[in-house]
């Protein structure tokens, strides 16, 4: 039967129950990163590495292979190299080797792009929407007790169903506040969203991150931008630069400054995980979905 999670992080993210009540101790295993964690995007039920484009279509499709680099960094660098906005079907892990499709509208500006930790290869043209049907994972565990691993896998398989949560990676572990940013945007509190993105340092973050976030919280956004590393914090830099630009813009007729929110949030993920937890909270063994 499901058991209530005792961890604060789970509670904050809406992951309120574990599917099984087992006193499992942590496995003494490690996943070598990035080579031990491979993600392959699935398109129309097949691995994206098998996708073959045609000669005609309204978009040029590429295969992007990333190795140990975050999505935002790779996508911005690739878009600059192509001179065109690059579109994706989904965001893939940073500390991993990932394969996914990307496309630009119209004819291909280049057949290949190589950057810091990624490469882009033209696969051909395609007409219409590409259907993302999931992701496939290849995970290498080093040092695990194979017998114990098989016993746990068998136990989970015997259940037939497990609670279908959005996991930590969707929210962040060092800085688990993406859903809070989404809530602020949904409420129209754009200044609050910016504060959550730039300020509010978390204890588990690197010292350089805590430093620029503290500068922002103290009322020195210009100092925060100067102290912000140019690599690894591209989202924060873009949001803070836009925020400072809007401060320099004269107020509109309503007396308010425009402030553009970030392009995405994770509020929906938090809502889905919380809803999944409602089944066990009401006595159901599983929550479908």
Tell me the Rg in angstroms. Answer: 22 Å
CATH topology of the domain at 37-136: Alpha-Beta Plaits
CATH arch. level architecture of the domain at 37-136: 2-Layer Sandwich
| Span between termini | 18 Å
Number of helices: 11
Task: Report the sheet-strand fraction.
Answer: 15-25%
Assign the CATH class of the domain at 37-136: Alpha Beta
**What structural category do the secondary elements indicate?**
alpha+beta
Report the helical percentage.
25-40%
What is the H/E order? Answer: EHEEEEHEEEEEHHHHHHHHH
Mean pLDDT: 86
Name the shape in a single word: globular
How many β-strand stretches? Answer: 10
Largest sheet: 8 strands, mixed
Low-confidence stretches: 257-267
Which secondary structure elements does this structure contain, and how are they paired or packed?
Layout: E1 3-4, H1 8-12, E2 17-18, E3 37-43, E4 46-47, E5 59-67, H2 71-82, E6 87-88, E7 97-105, E8 112-115, E9 118-126, E10 132-139, H3 146-159, H4 168-171, H5 178-186, H6 190-198, H7 207-217, H8 221-227, H9 234-247, H10 267-276, H11 278-281
Parallel strand pairs: 3-7
Antiparallel strand pairs: 1-2, 3-4, 3-10, 5-7, 5-9, 6-7, 8-9
Helix pairs in contact: 5-6, 5-10, 7-8
Keywords:
289 residues, Hypothetical Protein Yqey, Chain: A, domain1, two-stranded antiparallel sheet, eight-stranded mixed β-sheet, single chain
Kindly describe this structure.
There is one protein chain. With 289 residues, the chain is an alpha+beta fold. It has helices spanning 8-12, 71-82, 146-159, 168-171, 178-186, 190-198, 207-217, 221-227, 234-247, 267-276, 278-281; strands at residues 3-4, 17-18, 37-43, 46-47, 59-67, 87-88, 97-105, 112-115, 118-126, 132-139. It starts with a strand and ends in an 8-residue tail after the last helix. 34% of the residues lie in helices and 19% in strands. The strands form 2 sheets. Strands 3, 4, 5, 6, 7, 8, 9 and 10 form an 8-stranded mixed sheet that branches. It has a two-stranded antiparallel sheet with strand order 1-2. It has 11 helices and 10 strands. Helix 5 (178-186) runs antiparallel to helix 6, helix 5 (178-186) crosses helix 10 and helix 7 runs antiparallel to helix 8. Among the domains are: 37-136, 2-Layer Sandwich (Alpha-Beta Plaits), CATH 3.30.70; 171-265, Hypothetical Protein Yqey, Chain: A, domain1, CATH 1.10.1510. 21% of the residues are buried. A hairpin with a 2-residue loop joins strand 3 (37-43) and strand 4.
């Amino acid at each position: 039967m499901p058991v209530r999670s005792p961890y604060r992080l789970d509670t904050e993210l809406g992951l309120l129950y574990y599917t099984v009540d087992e006193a499992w101790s942590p496995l003494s295993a490690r996943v070598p990163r990035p080579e031990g964690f491979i993600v392959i995007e699935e398109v129309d039920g097949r691995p994206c590495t098998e996708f073959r484009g045609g000669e005609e279509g309204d978009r040029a499709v590429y295969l992007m292979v990333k190795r140990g680099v975050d999505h935002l960094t790779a996508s911005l660098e690739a878009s600059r190299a192509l001179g065109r906005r690059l579109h994706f079907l989904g965001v893939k892990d940073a500390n991993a080797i990932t394969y996914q499709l990307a496309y630009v509208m119209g004819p291909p500006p280049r057949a290949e792009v190589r950057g810091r930790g990624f490469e882009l290869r033209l696969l051909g043209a395609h007409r219409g929407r590409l259907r993302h049907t999931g992701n496939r994972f290849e995970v290498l565990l080093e040092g695990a007790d194979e017998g114990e691993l098989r016993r746990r896998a068998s136990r989970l398989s015997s259940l037939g169903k497990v609670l279908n949560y959005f996991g930590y990676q969707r929210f962040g572990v060092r800085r688990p506040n993406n859903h809070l940013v989404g809530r602020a945007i949904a409420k129209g509190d754009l200044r609050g969203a910016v504060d959550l993105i730039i300020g509010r340092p978390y204890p588990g973050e690197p010292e350089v991150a805590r430093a620029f976030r503290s500068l922002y919280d103290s009322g020195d956004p210009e100092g925060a931008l100067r102290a912000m590393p140019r690599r690894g914090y591209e989202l924060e830099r873009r949001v803070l630069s836009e925020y400072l630009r809007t401060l320099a813009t004269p107020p509109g007729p309503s007396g308010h400054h425009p402030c553009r929110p970030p392009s995405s949030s994770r509020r929906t993920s938090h809502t889905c995980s919380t809803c999944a937890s409602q089944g066990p909270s009401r006595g159901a063994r599983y929550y479908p979905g």
